[in-house]
Amino acid sequence: MKTDPGDTAWLLVSSALVLLMTPALALFYAGMVRKKNVLSTLMHSLVAIPIVTVQWTLYGYSLAFGPTKFGIIGGLDFVGLEQPGQGLPHGTVTDHYRSAL
């Protein structure tokens, strides 16, 4: 399957914009608290980036895109990105490894 460079570029730009939302939200929250609580509020928001990244890599992708269990949520078949895309429909944008990360 040939990957379209425009689709890949858009995926990278949109991922970068989402990643930039976290520091922006941290600054917004820091502006709403007193001066003595600014650092802890900033750190609270910025520590969320690596935590959510690890959670998404370990089991979030599997719950979002894995084979459904009872028609509600995906199973844990792809925990830790183990064989993503096996038996799933292929899209025209990118393969599952690129969209997972």
Please describe what this structure looks like.
This protein has one domain (5-100). It has four helices and two strands. The chain has helices at 5-30, 38-46, 48-65, 96-100, and strands at 68-69, 73-74. A two-stranded antiparallel ribbon has the order 1-2. The longest helix is centred in the N-terminal third of the chain and has 26 residues, at 5-30. The protein is flat and about 50 Å long.
Task: Give a summary of the structure in a few sentences.
Helix content is 57%, strand content 4%. It is mainly alpha-helical and 101 residues long. The protein has a two-stranded antiparallel ribbon.
Structural class: mainly alpha
Strand order in space, largest sheet? 1-2
Total beta-strand segments: 2
Characterize the biggest β-sheet.
2 strands, antiparallel
Broad shape = flat
The fraction of residues assigned to DSSP E strands is: under 5%
Ends distance? 19 Å
Mean pLDDT: 81
* Element string (H = helix, E = strand): HHHEEH
The portion of residues assigned to helices is 55-70%
Catalogue the unreliable spans. none
Count of discrete alpha- or pi-helical segments spanning 4 or more residues: 4
What does the radius of gyration come to?
17 Å
The number of domains is 1
